[in-house]
Records
---
Amino acid sequence: MSETLGQPASQPIGQPLGQSLAAAGTDTVPMAELALAGDLARPSRLTVPDLLAWPQHTAAASFECATSGVRHHRFTGPLLHDVLSAAGPGFDPRRRKDRLRFLIAVTGADGHHALLSWAETDPDFGRAPVLLAVTLDDTPLDRAGPQLVLPQDRCGARHISGITAIRVDGGYPTGTGNPVAGSDLGNYLHSMADDEPTRAARLLDAQAKAERLFAEIEKLGLVAPGEGERAVSDRVRDLANEMFGTTRHWHKRIVRSGPNTLKPYKENPPDRVIGADDIVFADFGPIFEEYEADFGRTFVLGDDPVKHRLRDDLPRIFAAGRSFFDADPDITGARLYAEVDRLARDAGWELGGWHAGHLVGEFPHEWIDGADVESYVTPANDTPMRRTDKAGRRCHWILEIHLIDREREFGGFHEELLTL
């Protein structure tokens, strides 16, 4: 492949340099987004206009295609290394050359995957000028999504069109100390392309481990009067590591008590000490071999009959919601939310959040934009829940029940897999 990287991008035909379709006012079709996830301090979702914030480079690329011969294209966009560096990769400063163990997994809308090493793109090592292209032959890619372009490759097999996700990961623990050896790297790669029975089995296995974790929380009495919420959260984190070697959680760890149990997920109430007559819920999302678990349960301390009734209603309403889901093959997120809301009101409670569940799968979805209602069980989601994703895989769902009593200022929480 030939390239002209390192030079300022010249004036494209049609749109001024750095201008996207959105800037030009042609925004009748939603812009594509890609999710940056994994071992990053600042995970996010990015559009083509977002990618224009980085220095733009050009590449005139020629590569061989098995079906159409040699193809010639011109791309502009930021360097992949620049974008990922800005997201704060989780290198351990105590480990010399820690970045060398990190991998970059790129996924396209058609299910195509490519895997790169961090060292391949790092200026201190391979210095490969890998682009996240925002234009193809001077045509903006706002709607199709950015493309992964490797000008140094002779074959175009690693070219990814319509990128939907980029995952940075250095977490491959093994007994040998080699972070990418043997079956651990295989587990990571297979999680991107497992067949449906395997995906289902691994999601169920992740949930079974989460259930064991929560049973141990109760057995050890970690939720106890006089303990701070953050201290309990840290102990649960350490327990997960001790039991399963789990060090990563795809969303923030939540332990809330008393009036803090009224708060929805995105709130961050101040740390609170658990009381002797209290209600507490825990919501954890540990990652087991690249598959998410998302599990929540409620604990009651003391003899308050209303708190006990709320805790007992949570699994009952969950079961009724699941039965409603199972009975309707064409159910939408809006229809399921309405039923869960009805069940809550009939029991004398309110729902505490704007949604009652979400997609779950192989990679953290916390960075899905809240406006992407198709990913949530919410009144605005009129799409069928039984569907496939952009990569052609079956969608799996978490059902979460957050019940609150505003007058008494407490709530409870229960969540687990809905679709398996």
---
Amino acid sequence: NEISELLKELGFQNVKNVPSGEEALEIVAKEKPCLILMDIELKGKLNGIKTVHKIHEQHSDIAIIYLSKVRDSLTLNKMYPTNPESFIPKPFDHHTLSIAIQIALNKQLQEKKTKVQTNKKLLDDSFFVSSGNQEKRIQTKDVLYLKSQGSYCNLITVNGTHVLSINLSVFEEKVNQNLLVRVQRQFIINASKIVAFEGANAILTAPTKRKEDGSVDESSQFIKIPIGKKYLKELMLRFNRARSN
């Protein structure tokens, strides 16, 4: 089609065109493209927005440009959290699309350079996160848990909360997995903070907070994190081994 021809003119040799989100996920799993032009209206059970959410669970660094006739506020509000590089309403001209693609790829290149530098700084006992104009060192022992937010994640420590511009899977690959362990698709927790198990939940100890009258707020001392079935047995074994050593 016309878009495929335009991409080839821009130097893309391996161009795939699929009608459904399910097929797009298969292509991404096999080839991990650098750029996806995504229509919101697709064949199959997944629309374009849901497909991008699934793609970002494994590949947060793929540039997404939406092309669609749909432009109502409800749909667009669902699209924004997927952090696309651009949204181009149909119909569009080739020049507009060409510029959007070049901007997206240049941004992607700069982000990769930044990530390489950040990855080099990750250590077993600590790692660095961006805080304003600084790179702040976080001690791994101070981490409480991380929660996935699609293409990024929230890092909660004893000293506060940080937003990381990498997804949970990428973070997991880079840190000390003896201490920070995956317990669900959405959560990584600090195993050393576990004080109890309650059904399929891990109870973590948290910094003590005080009420306005100075008394201890007991409700703030513990955090309950759900554990997925596939992670529960391994986590319990890890915990039992830790207690027996």
